[in-house]
Amino acid sequence: MVNSPMGTPAYITVKHVHRLSPKAVRVTLDPGDNLDDWRNIPGGFMTFCLPCGDPVLTRSYSLVQGPESIYPEVIVKETGGTRGSAFVNRKFQAGLKLMAYPPQGRLLPTFWTTTPNHFVLFAAGVGITPLYHVMQHLLAGPVDHEITLFYGNSGCHDILLREELDELSRDPRVNVVHILSDGSLDDDLHNGRINASKTMLLMQTVDTALPKKVLLSGPKSMKTEVRRGLDLCRVPEADIRAEDFHHPPHLEASVASTCEVTAEYKGKTVSFTYEPGEETLMDAVLQHGLNAPQSCRGGVCGSCRAVVLEGEVSEEHSYALTAAERAQGMVLCCQSR
Questions:
Q1: Using CA atoms, how far apart are residues 16 and 13, in angstroms rounded to an integer?
Q2: Which CATH code for domain 10-104?
Q3: Please, where are the H alpha helices in 69-148?
Q4: Distance spanning both ends of the chain, measured CA to CA
């Protein structure tokens, strides 16, 4: 297995909870004496150990604080159920202590920020959080970048960080464009969902002499459509990054009813008989005593990356993997069977 180092978990304290809407909160966190280890990564995320189950539930949420802020901040939108985002929205309050891992993330390549670029950002819903974080850092940095944000929502009342985005758009380098699916805007281009054809039209409105770099964040269906549109616009894949990358094709299920698995991590090896089904490879290796790295369990954080040396696996999602990593035989154990 290949580890994406998560650092050492530590106790942090909820410093402040600000309700943005009936279903979304902005949480400020205080790592205490560990503050130096909690670096501010543009477009990064934090992984929390939420005390709402047995075992403890781990969930990752995007950072949103500005580049000068010393305290990590995340926005969490409730998505239903009673765990994860619901627990954060309903139970988080100032003074709560819980375990968390230091920030990490791979959304914004550092080498993209060293020379002037025009960053074209596509977001939908709560997907705005990592891109807002990126925007703040790009504008505060020493290099003179330009930014165009295309932000899709159901309606005006669903727009997260609206005042903050309005403030950023006062900078002449920034253009914030809202697209609403409820049809409340004045023209067809800015009404409806962001699909492939709309992506092509929106890209045509980006007037710049700088090289374009594209960042995507939002629901899987939106990102799939945007990538189709970018492909039709002949945007090179090397110039596209997504918070949870594109959905890979499913492998045909041609596995036997059982198979033998050998997994190795940090010099420890376990071998066992595995029966593909509801249980993922991540579940299986943990049950057989291999303390392999894992976090979000949703194919997003990349902590459980592994290299397949022999045999084949079927993956549900591999959002955190780049095309180059997939070509090298990497998989996400939490999504593999």
A1: 9
A2: 2.40.30.10
A3: 85-91, 128-140
A4: 15
pLDDT digits (tens, 9 = 90+) for 116-169: 999 999 999 989 999 999 999 999 999 999 999 999 999 998 899 999 999 999
Model confidence pLDDT, tens digit, residues 201-214: 999 999 999 999 99
Where are any strands of DSSP class E within the chain?
10-21, 24-30, 45-50, 57-62, 73-77, 97-104, 118-124, 146-153, 174-180, 212-217, 240-242, 259-265, 268-274, 305-307, 330-332
Backbone angles phi and psi of 323, in degrees to 5 = -60, -40
pLDDT tens figures, 242-274: 985 333 333 333 445 678 899 998 889 999 888
pTM: 0.70
Q: Give CA–CA dist 311/261, Å, rounded.
A: 9
- The domain 259-335 belongs to what CATH superfamily? Beta-grasp domain (3.10.20.30)
Query: Residue 19 is encoded by which pair of tokens?
Result: 């309700």
110-242, which class in CATH?
alpha beta
